[in-house]
Write a structure and sequence with these properties.
About 45% of the residues lie in helices and about 25% in strands. The chain has a four-stranded antiparallel sheet with strand order 1-2-4-3. The protein has a three-stranded antiparallel sheet with strand order 7-6-9, covered by helices on one side. Strands 5-8 form a two-stranded parallel sheet. α1 runs antiparallel to α2. The longest helix is centred in the N-terminal third of the chain and has 40 residues. By secondary structure, the chain is an alpha+beta fold. It has three domains: about 50 residues; about 90 residues, Threonyl-tRNA Synthetase, Chain A, domain 2 (2-Layer Sandwich); about 90 residues.
Length: about 300
């Protein structure tokens, strides 16, 4: 799940950095031109000069021909600032990349045949299990891959469901994005097909993504093991149920609450305790985002 406000803020920062970078480069170019012009005027003799410089009797070169000591370039601070801005721009791009959907990452990425070879065996196992009815290809760029699927008309394969529940795919892939298919025909035979695409974020080799579902469950178990329900309901004198939805991602946790205790002081007390526990829990990276829903009862069942 991508949060649009964060994407917007990062995009603004990226644009500001690019604009300032361009301004400094233009100013630097202007300064170079000014210095070159001044230096040229000093080296070209004046047309009104009628007498050459008198010879130096002591054998020393005229002062006008002695090279001056090197000056500290006034562009040095600007160049340092440009380097700093380029570094900040690279960091901003990296942060922004984390929030981009896999399809956008794929469009801007460079070919990554190693990632393609890494994900292909799992796809072959899942997509070739129906006797070869599906026609598919996979291509990876950067940290994202695109799966192109041609499904014969009337086949109705559940290949997308198989990809989402497969344990190996969930370990290799950090996020999936499916695009609605459309009808098409084979350009040679005219055979009707249904054309679909899916995009994946592929984890770094050796750093397979952890399960967000496991992390969310661990957080819920820590809440249940605490005295939050007993203390927040005054030793269970306030009865009811609290429905808790925990969304785990690489940035931490998001929560939704409901049930008969959801809008009560006891429910808000339990919610605050859950958020305190979540803030102290280390979230592994990379992490496959997941949503987990659980319930708490007062008194316990």
């Amino acid at each position: 799940m991508f949060r649009r406000p964060e994407i917007a803020v990062l995009a603004v920062l990226l644009g500001a950095s690019i604009a300032l970078n361009a301004y400094l480069v233009l100013r630097a170019s202007g300064s170079h031109g000014f210095e070159a012009s001044s230096a040229l005027k000093q080296l070209v003799p004046s047309e009104r000069s009628e007498k050459p410089p008198s010879p130096n009797i002591e054998g020393k070169a005229p002062e006008s021909l002695v090279p001056s000591s090197p000056r500290t370039s006034p562009l040095s601070p600007c160049e340092a600032r440009v380097d700093q801005l380029e570094s900040e721009l690279a960091k901003t791009r990296a942060r922004l990349d984390r929030f981009l959907p896999p399809a956008e990452k794929f469009q801007t990425g460079t070919p990554n045949p190693r990632a393609t070879d890494r994900i292909r065996p799992a796809l072959e196992r899942l997509l070739n299990s129906d006797g070869g009815q599906l026609h598919w290809s996979v291509d990876c760029r950067g940290s994202a891959c695109r799966l192109h699927v041609l499904e014969p008309e009337g086949v109705h394969s559940k290949w997308s469901d198989a990809l989402q529940i497969d344990e190996e795919m969930r370990r290799i892939v950090g996020g999936m994005e499916f695009h609605a298919g459309s009808p098409t025909n084979d350009p040679v035979t005219g055979e009707p097909f249904y054309e679909s695409e899916a995009y994946f974020n592929v984890s770094t080799e050796g750093q397979e993504a952890a399960s967000g579902l496991d992390v969310a469950k661990r957080l819920a178990e820590k809440l249940k093991a605490s005295d939050a329900v007993r203390s927040c309901t005054n030793s269970y004198t306030q009865r009811g149920r609290l429905v808790i939805q925990i969304q785990a991602n690489e940035d931490g946790f998001n929560y939704r609450f409901g049930g008969s205790l959801g809008a009560t002081p006891a429910g808000r007390c339990i919610a605050a305790r859950l958020q305190e526990i979540g803030a102290s829990l280390e979230v592994p990276r990379p992490l496959r985002g997941a949503v987990f829903t659980t319930e708490l009862a007062s008194p316990p069942e």
